[in-house]
Amino acid sequence: MGTVRVTESIAKLLGLGERELVAFTGAGGKSSLMLRLGDELARSGQRVLVTTTTKMGRDQFERFPAVCTSHDLPAVTAAFASNNLVALTTGGDDHKATGPPPGVVDGLFEIVPLDHLLVEADGAHGLSLKAPGPHEPVIPAKTTTVVVLMGVDAVGRRIADVAHRPEQAAALTGLAMDDRLEVDHCVTVLTHQDGGLKGVPPGARVVVALTKTGIAATDRAAAEIAHQLGLHRRISRVVVVPG
To answer: How far apart are CA 35 and CA 240, in angstroms?
Structure first.
């Protein structure tokens, strides 16, 4: 298990293969990291489909050169006719867009001639730590890599202030919602079967992306978290994302 810092190729640092279905879960910048990866892969000539099994901001989809609003095979295939980077949204409202259910995502990955399918499979309302509820995350069964995010600025702060589903985070760590999170608590959430590892398909690789770093305190916390995660057999690597 290695620890790497995002400086150049995100795909390389995540350890992605030639063709992957990548699900992004957790908290602390899923959409940003996913979209950066999509742009990078498309610029290298690969065909990339981006979607969500939960909800994404409608404005996130406005930046794509091609947006498909149907998950029918002919529609998705046609969207790639002139663009390598395609977003798929099948519903929602003026503020949030929704995508197809996970079974449909699995089917698209199997039959659409694409290189990578990237899916936001969790929501966190912009917070830094996520402890999933009963219906979360929504990870497609064919997922090959799950990227679990956490904002390291959560360390030293109250659960109630930094966690999405704070009651779940408190239950996993044995803390009260007014207690402050320490490194060990964050590791517990990330590695718990009802936390960061919830819903991960048995054959999928797990990569943890630590975000919201870049100052001495968060860099130290990230290093400590990465060290502890290195002892966990289910986690392939840790990526530190500055900023």
So the answer is: 17
Q: Residues 50-68: what's their mean pLDDT? A: 89
> What mean pLDDT value characterizes the chain?
93
pLDDT of residue 3: 53
Stretch 128-154: mean pLDDT, rounded?
97
In sequence order, what DSSP letters do the residues of 164-177 get, joined into one string? ESHHHHHHHHT--T
Spatial neighbors of 198 by CB under 8 A, at least 6 apart, are 132, 136, 137, 192
Q: What is the pLDDT of residue 21?
A: 98
Q: Which CATH architecture has domain 2-54+113-242?
A: 3-Layer(aba) Sandwich (3.40)
Please report which helix (H) or strand (E) contains residue 86, including its range. strand 85-88
Main-chain phi, psi angles of 240, to 5 degrees: -100, 120
Parse the chain into domains and list their residue ranges: 2-54+113-242
Nearest of 64, 3, 30 to residue 146 by alpha carbon: 30
* Number of other CB atoms surrounding residue 79 within 10 Å: 22
Adjacent-strand bridge partners of 4: 239
Beta bridge pairs of residue 146: 23, 206
Q: What is the pLDDT of residues 24-54, one digit of tens each?
A: 999 999 999 999 999 999 999 999 999 999 9
Query: Pick from 140, 123, 132: which is nearest to 54 by CA?
Result: 123
Crossing angle of helices 216-229 and 183-191, in 10° steps, is: 50
